[in-house]
C-alpha cells in the first residue's frame, strides 16, 4: 500500500503507453518472414546435435553450399519456445521482448531526465518509429539484451552506477553476438562512448550533464575517471564477440552482410527511409524525430554531451542507409530526447510539484484494470477479436492458430501440398518459403529469405518469374519448375498469366496463396 501512495501521474502515463504497446503487439498477427525458417534451423540443430553450416532447402545451389547460421542461439530459442507452447508461446515471446525493451530503456530515460512526462513523450515517438518492425525473429529476441547493454552503459556514463556494472557488458555481448548480427551496434556504441568520454575528459569545462543531479556538476572530473574502465570494458566486450562458432571470423561476417548487393537492391527493409507525409510510414516519424532532436540539442536549455552527439550522428547515418535500423535509432535515442524535453515540461511556478501523486484508491483500480487488459490479450484468449470488425482478412484463419498468424502465412496452401504432393521443382513467394521450409523441409524451394546465400543471378531469375510476363514463362521452363505457390496480392500478374497460359492449372486457391501447377 505504501508503494501505491507514492505513485504519481507520471507513472500512470508511462504505464499507459507500455500497456498500449503490449495490447497492440498482442493483437497484431504474427508475420512469417524471418520466423519459420529460423525455427527450422533450430530444429535441425537439435535433431542433429550440431551447428549446421549448409544450404539444405534450396535447389538453385548445391545442398552443401556454405551458409552461416550466425543467429544460432535465437534459432534454438525460437524452436524451444515452439516446443514449449506452439504458436501462442511464440506470440507471447514477441510481446514480452518488445514491451520489455521499451520499458527498460524508458526506465533509464526517466532516471536520466528526471521527468516522467518527458520519458513518456520520448517513448511515444520511439513507438511510432519502430512499430512497423514488430515481427518475431532473432533481432526481436536480442532487443532485451541490447537495451540492457545500452542502459548499463548509459547509467555508468551518467555516474549512477559504479564501474563494476561494466562487467555486465561482455556477458550481454556473448548473448548478443550469438543471437543476431546487430551485435556490432553494441560494440560501436561502446567505442563511441569511450571517444565521447575522452573528449569530455581532455577539454576544459563541463557541459552535457544534468546540473545538480547525480554528480553532473563536474562532468570533466567524472569523465577522467571513466576513460580507463570504459577502455577495459571495450576490450572485454571485443573479446566476448569472439565467443561464437565463427570465432574471429565474425569480424568479416558483419561487413559481408552490410555490403551484400542483393540485400541493398531488392529488399525493402534495406532501403533508405522514405521522406513523405504518410504517418503510417516509418520514415515520417524518423525524420520528424531527427529534426526535433536536432533543434532541441542546438537551441534547448540542456545541451548534449559528446557521447550524445556521436550516438545521434552514428545512428542517424545508419538509419539513412536502411530503414531496418530505425527501431534501434528510436530506442537508443529515447533517453537523449527525454533529457532534452525535460526542461520544457518543468513547471515554472515556484513551489509547484513536478509530479502529483495519485489517489491510492484510483491507483489500485487502475492497476486492476491494467492487469485485466494485459491478461485479456494473452494469445490463449484469441486477442484478434479486439482488432475490430473487418480485420479478419489480416489473419491466416486456417489451422488451430490461424487467428494469431498473419494472412501472409500460407497455412491452408501448405496443408494442401502436404496432403497432395506434387512432383518436380517448386517456386514460392519468398515470404511463403519461410513457412514451407518449416512445414515441408523436404520440399526444396527456388530461393528463400536467407538472402545472402544466393548470388545475384538467382535473385534476378526469381524476380523475373515474379513479375508475371513472357520472360517469366521462359524462366519457368528454363528451371523446369512444375508448380508454384503464388501470392495473389503481390504476384497478381503472375497469377493471371499462368491461369491464361495453356498447360498451367489452378490446383488450390486459399485466402491469399494459390498453388498452380502444370496440367500434365
What tags apply to this protein structure?
520 residues, mainly alpha
What layout of secondary structure does this protein have?
Layout: H1 2-5, H2 9-27, H3 36-48, H4 72-113, H5 116-130, H6 138-141, H7 143-157, H8 168-179, H9 183-202, H10 219-240, H11 250-258, H12 261-266, H13 282-299, H14 306-321, H15 326-332, H16 334-341, H17 360-376, H18 411-419, E1 425-428, H19 430-439, H20 456-467, H21 470-478, E2 481-487, H22 492-500, E3 504-509, E4 513-518
Parallel strand pairs: 1-2
Antiparallel strand pairs: 2-4, 3-4
Structure description:
- The protein is mainly alpha-helical and 520 residues long.
- Helix content is 57%, strand content 4%.
- The chain has 22 helices and 4 strands.
- A 4-stranded mixed sheet has the order 1-2-4-3.
- A hairpin with a 3-residue loop joins β3 and β4.
- α8 packs across α10.
- The radius of gyration is 25 Å and the shape is globular.
- The N and C termini lie far apart (75 Å).
- About 2% of the residues have low confidence.
Largest sheet: 4 strands, mixed
- Percent of residues in helices comes to 55-70%
Which H/E pattern describes the elements?
HHHHHHHHHHHHHHHHHHEHHHEHEE
Mean pLDDT comes to: 91
Sequence stretches where pLDDT stays below 50 over 5 or more residues: 210-216, 348-352
Count of separate DSSP helical elements = 22
Shape: globular
Q: Number of DSSP strands?
A: 4
Q: Return the structural class.
A: mainly alpha
Biggest β-sheet: strands ordered side by side in the sheet: 1-2-4-3
N-end to C-end Cα span: 75 Å
Multimeric state of these chains? single chain
| Strand-residue proportion | under 5%
Cα gyration radius (Å): 25 Å
